[in-house]
Write a structure and sequence with these properties.
Mean pLDDT: 73
Helix content: 40-55%
CATH topology of the largest domain: Transferase(Phosphotransferase), domain 1
Strand order of the largest sheet: 1-2-3-5-4
Largest sheet: 5 strands, antiparallel
Distance between the termini: 34 Å
Number of strands: 13
Strand content: 5-15%
CATH superfamily of the largest domain: Transferase(Phosphotransferase) domain 1
CATH class of the largest domain: Mainly Alpha
């Protein structure tokens, strides 16, 4: 078996891959992650060319005896298709002391998701349709080459000088290479994955799976946000599987709306092929641009009550945010920052409510749709505050996402909020640097007593004295409820560890106050447990194992642990890459 190092050395020697000395790159700055490694920006010396450096193989990997098929596949596909103007170009490869690094064309405006957040309010429908056409042209080229991408989403579409490029071919496959057991069938970002992959684990992705993802991208271009952005991953999968899709955005050209709805049809056979998609988008590009603009409210026909209700809804949300921040238990600084940002526009919104003439003048422009977008963002801010401000919801947030996601979501909401404010005749005075310092202080406080668990799943049985579910109520003074009675087996999956201290919780002090009281009162006040450290996570319980032989039970437990551990670890990795 050829080693990774040997494979690369051979390809470089025979000119299959262009090699750059690592010393040729200057001003290297980290900018994010790709599917298979970290990504940096750098200057290529003496050329004035900006490039992206993507780590694809670490030292520990290239010293192994086996070549990573995914890495090789990405390199080979890039070599085959990177000359197309809508595919992110591979310029060559380089190596530092620790890693093999792919040298790629740099996209100076980031990925599509960030681009839409920053620029959406200034985009016209002619711009949006051209963006959709850019993606479609690149995908048409891939399909003509017999290649399915299998992982199209807005973070895998890059923007360079306002032109969109398809990137990250790491999960792509030649159609001849796909199998019913392909490991990439469920890889990707849930909101963009073909529903058939959730319904049938043996379903193999095909060109129509790419068309589904393209349909979601066309909707995202029309809305400026990713699909089901306020839902957990489990809910997204549930909604998509039962046929739910995002609602059309007001003002979307009818032909464009019908196109993406056909693309994301649940039945793959009902989805158009890429040639048909490109044909329809090309027709839309040639139509009178007037027909592509979002209809604006007619000031003479507008019902004063409609915008008034919008304003009233926003004002109600202001009050709800204030209440949430007042009662916050955690991330108080972060919540106050968001509250301050939202409250900065409250006077201007109240003025619109009071003065009908001003309101009519205000809605005689793009301001109406921008105010709707701002309202949606404020609702998301309220939801975010409610998730991170109370212990119970914070634990669920950490289980569903991770602690680091708090900072990422905070930045996204601030950028989104500011982008709409810049269009509206409102003004705010905030300094992002100061905000991030306060956010970091909250993060530091949080990590003092909440730590992401690195522990592996472990099994408790009914005879284990450490297992709460094994307590015999007859031997305890406090009577356990039926929900805590023994199960035959319990497999635990740790997610995070919470440590209670004097500064972070009053539970130990409360416990000491009731030490001399009768047990009934103690139970009513504090429940069964008096923790200083808690391990939170998920668990699976199983009953009725008594009839099975002991060796069969042990074998089943070990097999179950291994399989679920794999899923558990994979879920963590996927969450890190989203």
């Amino acid at each position: 078996m050829t080693s990774v190092k040997g494979w690369f050395d051979e390809k470089i020697k025979n000119g299959y891959i262009r090699y750059f000395e690592y010393s040729e790159f200057e001003e290297i700055v980290d900018i994010g992650r790709g599917n298979f490694g970290e990504v940096s920006r750098a200057n290529l010396a003496n050329t004035g060319l900006l490039v992206a450096l993507k780590i694809i193989i670490s030292k520990s990997q290239y010293e192994s005896d086996e070549v990573n098929d995914d890495i090789i596949k990405e390199l080979e596909l890039l070599r085959e298709v990177d000359y197309h103007p809508r595919i992110n170009r591979c310029l060559g490869i380089t190596k530092d002391p620790k890693n093999y690094i792919l040298v790629l064309e740099y996209a100076n405006e980031g990925n599509l998701r960030k681009y839409l957040k920053k620029n959406f309010t200034s985009l016209k429908w002619t711009d949006k349709i051209q963006m959709a056409l850019d993606i479609t042209s690149g995908l048409k080229f891939l399909h003509a080459k017999g290649i399915i991408h299998r992982d199209l989403h807005s973070k895998n579409i890059l923007v360079n000088d306002r032109k969109l490029l398809i990137a990250d071919l790491g999960l792509s496959k030649k159609l001849a290479e796909t199998t019913t057991h392909s490991k990439g069938n469920k890889y990707g970002v849930d909101g963009y994955i073909d529903p058939q992959c959730f319904k049938n684990r043996k379903y193999k992705k095909n060109k129509k799976s790419d068309i589904y993802s393209l349909g979601v991208l066309l909707w995202e271009i029309s809305s400026g946000r990713p699909p089901f952005s306020d839902c957990s991953r489990n809910l997204i999968t549930h909604y998509i599987t039962k046929g739910d899709r995002e609602d059309p955005i007001e003002g979307t050209p009818l032909k464009y709306q019908q196109l993406y709805q056909e693309c994301w049809d649940d039945n793959p056979e009902s989805r158009p092929d890429i040639e048909k998609v490109r044909e329809i988008l090309s027709q839309l590009c040639t139509e009178d641009s007037f027909n592509l603009q979002s209809p604006q409210p007619n000031i003479n026909n507008i019902d004063d009550k409609i915008p008034f209700e919008d304003i009233e809804n926003i004002l109600n949300i202001f009050e709800e945010i204030n209440e949430l921040v007042e009662t916050a238990e955690h991330n108080k600084r972060t919540c106050k920052i968001l509250k301050k940002r939202v409250n900065s526009v409250e006077p201007a919104v109240r003025d619109l409510k009071r003065d009908i003439d001003d309101r009519k003048e205000f809605f005689n422009s793009n301001n109406y749709s921008s105010l709707q977008n701002l309202s949606d963002t404020i609702i998301r801010i309220k939801k975010f505050i409610s998730e991170i401000s109370q212990m119970e919801s914070l634990i669920e947030y950490i289980k569903e996402k991770n602690i680091e996601n708090i900072e990422e979501t905070f930045k996204e909401l601030c950028e989104e909020f500011d982008s709409f404010i810049n269009v509206l005749p409102f003004s705010i005075d905030v300094k992002i640097a100061d905000e991030l310092e306060q956010l970091k202080a909250d993060q530091d406080d949080l990590t003092k007593y909440i730590h992401i668990s690195e522990g592996q799943p472990f099994v408790n049985d009914q005879n284990d004295h450490n297992n709460l579910s094994s307590f015999d109520s007859d031997d305890n003074d406090v009577r356990l409820t039926e929900s805590l009675r023994p199960s035959d087996i319990c497999i635990n999956f740790p997610v995070a560890e919470i440590t209670f201290t004097a500064d972070t919780a009053d539970l130990p002090e409360s416990f000491s106050n009731f030490m001399n009281n009768d047990e009934g009162k103690l139970y009513e006040t504090l429940g069964h447990l008096f923790p200083i450290r808690i391990l939170i996570g998920d668990k699976i319980q199983e009953n009725n194992l008594s009839e099975l032989k002991e060796e069969l039970i042990n074998e089943s437990i070990e097999k179950c642990k291994k399989e679920i551990s794999l899923i558990h670890d994979l879920n963590r990795k996927l969450m890190d890459n989203i």
